[in-house]
Amino acid sequence: MKKILFASSAIVAVAFAGQAQASEPIKLSVGGYMEQWIGFVDEDAPDTEGRVNAFQSDTEVYFSGSTTLDNGIEIGARIELEGETSGDQIDEQFLFVNGGFGRIEMGKNDSAADSMGITAPRVGPVGPNDGGIEDWYENAGIIDTVPSSGDQNRVTYFTPSLGGFQAGVSFADDSGKNGSDGYNSIDGSGDNVVSAALTYEADFDGFSLGLSAEGENVNEGSWYGAGVNVGFGNFTVGGSYGHTEDDYGLNLEDDGSNGEDIDAYDIGISYAMDAASVSATYAYQEEGDEEIQAASVGLNYTLGAGVSWQSSVFWFDEESDADNEGYGVITGLALNF
């Protein structure tokens, strides 16, 4: 099997090499974003000590570049450098190949299910569905209708868009090689991670439609979900649903045992007017006897090219062994470069 793979790889490499000699060399360009936020939050968790910093930031620098071969195939790379982190300094890094056959990505990146999943519309720095509420509190649960395995060393294939339909599939060979745990080719303690998604996007007379169905399997369990967004005029309404099985490989308790089945959904509406857009979004999640609900109202106002002022007012309520409720007001600037 190894000889067959080696021979196949050699044939592909020679084919590409003949075309690459006449193409332009890859030159990396720089991009990224910087977000700086200030906020006031309050929570009622009984064991809370102190407070989370009233100032938060998120910054990344992207290095990307590509070249187009004589046969029209584009080959390139993208590297994302975190501005501040306690884990990996490199957030994502992957190689991509684009052509009439679709797109292939290889490296540390999100799965097809994660990148193609559609959720309720939301603007502003904080939202109820995996939107950063937990960053502002010492004890806050996370609602997530698309709970994928995160950045992994994986291979992903996206089909071309055909009549508005597009499919994607990803494979990672070890769920244990993730994030700050680092990568190690000897351990192999994790399970295969298989992700897939199907989307449909179309514009009709007076309205637009976006649909998604996605899922992921790890160990003996899976999560799966679906989302829809409908646009008409300046409005967009939509929502999503996700179900995680109790034996999904990454859904574990602190003692390593299986968790509970998880059901989550979100709904929302947004309105865009010239340089400003506003939204209202609600999300709910149930895991056994634990219930979490959250809501946010957000504003995004474009001040200039690559500069926006964003604000969120949000609330969450968690009913579990450690009941907690809180609210917050966040504002700040987001720069894209």
Automatic annotation (TrEMBL):
Range of residues in the leader sequence: 1-22
InterPro entries per UniProt: Gram_neg_porin_domain, Porin_dom_sf
Keyword Signal listed: yes
Pfam family for this entry, one: Porin_4
Keywords, sorted A to Z: Signal
Residue ranges of every copy of the Porin domain listed in the record: 10-312
A Gene Ontology term for the protein's cellular component: membrane
Taxonomic superkingdom: Bacteria
Protein's UniProt keywords contain Membrane: no
One Gene Ontology molecular-function label: porin activity
Protein name: Porin
